[in-house]
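RECORD TYPE: inverse folding
INPUT: structure tokens
STRUCTURE:
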């Protein structure tokens, strides 16, 4: 269950990172409120995952999910440029996440 909590935390991290774009520096009430709720939810599920997972592994995977998801959302939502190097970097991050998961006994 702790891995599911970590994935949920990562998905909410993507949500709040993307939400920051819509807050316009926290000047828009509704996007700011939703973003803050996503932040709190992300940290809550990360904390639940940390009950059973090693800190370094969980944090790296949480940020990796957030990084990859945010880059992909930037490409799809904000028409950010797609390059071969960007995809290579995403592949390397995903490889690192998979490696950490495989090396963790929890």
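DESIGNED SEQUENCE:
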């Amino acid at each position: 269950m702790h891995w599911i909590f970590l994935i949920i935390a990562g998905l909410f991290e993507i949500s709040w990172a993307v939400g920051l774009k819509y807050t316009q520096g926290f000047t828009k009430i509704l996007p700011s409120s939703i973003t803050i709720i996503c932040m709190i939810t992300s940290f809550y599920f990360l904390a639940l995952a940390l009950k059973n997972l090693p800190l370094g592994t969980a944090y790296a995977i949480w940020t990796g999910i957030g990084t990859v998801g945010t880059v992909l959302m930037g490409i799809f939502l904000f028409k950010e440029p797609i390059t071969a190097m960007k995809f290579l970097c995403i592949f390397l991050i995903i490889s690192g996440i998979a490696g950490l998961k495989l090396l963790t006994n929890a």
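NOTES: Residues 2-103 form one domain.
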